[in-house]
Specification:
- This protein has 481 residues and is mainly beta.
- It has 3 helices and 32 strands.
- A 5-stranded antiparallel sheet has the order 1-29-28-27-24, with no helix packed on it. Strands 3, 4, 5, 6 and 7 form a 5-stranded antiparallel sheet that branches.
- The longest helix has 13 residues.
- The chain is globular, with a radius of gyration of 21 Å.
- The chain starts with 19 loop residues before the first helix and ends with a strand.
Length: 481
């Protein structure tokens, strides 16, 4: 039969090339939702099982010209240790990246899974649409992810333009495996030894990453690539904390830069060091030479920071007009292994830092912290504490204009915070899904509990949350009192 085209881009209508197996998977997901979730002011809209794959980063984009999509990065499959069957292709595939059509958020449809060639961690996803830099061909859509295993580290670029017409045409166009040798001194630069999360800017074509390379101590630091021509990536520059280079005296600072949060409009990249609790900002007016402008060490008593994003306030209690506007940074710790069972005496938390004068002073000033009370969560099992908050809305930096921050909180589910007063962060909603038939313990001997790992927010106001231990993707909506 003839295939009708989609007027948005001359494409076939969504689903024209999908298999009966993929449709069957969507119909079955509803049966996997178990009763008795917990929540307040937050409603479960939809769910997809993601074929039972352990999930991490979620990228959600609602776009008038391109539709409503979610991209999910997956962990390596350490639980089963074998490829999983993909009903869409009838092939066994290592965990990679899932693409979902969420035009109907009540029925998110998994249209394609981009497998990894090996059992690697592909947790990171970043997407650009109608890409204006690439001239051959112009106006296409791309996705970049990380691929990290014990033996290799890379960032892989895919052309995903045909995901809604014929997803089998999704193809890798480039792989970043190294930086120029000698680009930071003798023996510095070369084959990547680490590749974590990144941020692709559609405005400049720059890809800001957390990576590691020869010449640096273990962990990650800021590395920037030029992806204006996605098929021909080029190295641009790097930034790091003093002591991260092996040629520098080692300091007490942590060395594990987790991921960048980019504010190009203000020439800033923000990041956190999970290994040492450090929070930093780099000036990227010259991306070939990022300049560290301020740094704060939250450890002790902190536990290791993960996500940092700026918020500008025009009104702050007890500040007069001459002291406004003020700039703050919302920071989330990551609850890691020692938090299982709350063995560590210090709980992980969120911080609000005043960074208005940080460029001048070289550091930030803490004004508030927030955390979920221990309650029953220390006895539930799994990780308890924050991991990340939604730092983007569609393709743009989340400016928190509605005053709400959505936080992934592992066994405490998704929490929504009112951050309209930086000195008084307050919870206004939460949702804790129940484990389902695909869920598994986070480690041998642990109980099976939900482990919400990442949240994303699209322009329609839907919240998308991933489960680290196979429970799938949850679509939520905040319903205030």
């Amino acid at each position: 039969m003839p295939v009708l085209t989609d007027a948005r881009k001359g494409r076939a209508p969504r689903g024209a090339f999908r298999t009966a197996a993929s449709t069957a998977v969507c119909l079955l997901t509803a049966s996997l939702l178990h009763a008795a979730p917990q929540g307040r002011n937050m409603e479960l809209i939809g769910h997809n099982d993601l074929q039972g794959r352990d999930a991490l980063q979620v990228t959600a984009i609602s776009d008038a010209a391109n539709g409503d999509w979610v991209y999910v990065g997956h962990h390596d499959d350490t639980w089963e240790g074998a490829p999983r069957q993909n009903p869409i292709t009838n092939a066994s595939e290592w965990n990679g990246t899932s693409i979902l059509d969420v035009s109907d958020p009540a029925n998110p449809e998994l249209v394609w899974h981009i497998p990894n060639a090996v059992n690697a961690n592909s947790r990171s996803t970043s997407v650009v649409y109608d890409y204006g830099f690439a001239s051959d061909p112009p106006g296409r859509d791309y996705l970049v992810r990380n691929s990290q295993s014990a033996d290799s580290a890379a960032f892989q670029v895919f052309d995903i333009t045909d995901r809604d017409a014929d997803p089998s045409r999704v193809r890798m166009v480039a792989e970043i495996t190294s930086t120029p040798e000698g680009s930071c001194g003798p023996g510095c630069g070369g084959a990547l030894t680490g590749a974590h999360k990144g941020w692709w800017s559609p405005e400049t074509g720059l890809y800001y990453t957390a990576a590691n390379e020869p010449g640096f101590r273990g962990g990650h630091h800021l590395v920037i690539f030029d992806l204006r021509d996605p098929a021909n990536p080029a190295f641009v520059g790097r930034g790091w904390l003093p002591g991260q280079m092996t040629s520098e005296p080692e300091t007490e600072y942590g060395t594990n830069w987790h991921h960048p949060v980019v504010d190009e409009a203000n020439d800033r990249v923000y990041g956190a060091y999970l290994g040492g609790g450090d929070v930093v900002a780099f000036d990227i007016a010259d991306p070939s030479d990022p300049r560290l402008v301020w740094h704060m060490d939250t450890e002790p008593p902190g536990r290791g920071t993960h996500t940092v994003a700026p918020i500008v306030y025009d009104t702050v209690p007890n500040f007069g007009p001459d002291a406004l506007p003020r700039v703050y940074a919302l920071v989330a710790d990551e609850a890691t292994g020692p938090d299982i069972g709350c063995a560590h005496p210090v709980r992980t938390k969120l911080y609000m830092l005043d960074i208005t004068d940080a460029d001048a002073t070289g550091t930030a000033y803490p004004v508030d912290t927030w955390q979920v009370p221990d309650g029953e969560f220390c006895d539930t099992g799994g990780r308890f504490g924050p991991h990340q908050f939604a730092e983007r809305i569609d393709l743009a930096l989340n400016r928190f204009e509605d005053g709400i921050a959505y936080v992934a909180y592992f066994n405490a589910g998704v929490r929504a915070l009112d951050v309209s007063d930086p000195y008084d962060m307050r919870e206004v909603a939460y949702y804790i899904p129940e484990p389902n038939d695909n869920s598994h313990p986070i480690a041998e001997g642990e109980p099976t509990v939900i482990q919400i790992n990442d949240v994303a927010l699209d322009g329609r106001g839907f919240v998308y949350a991933s489960d680290r231990v196979g429970g799938g993707l949850f679509v939520l909506r905040y319903e205030p009192d």
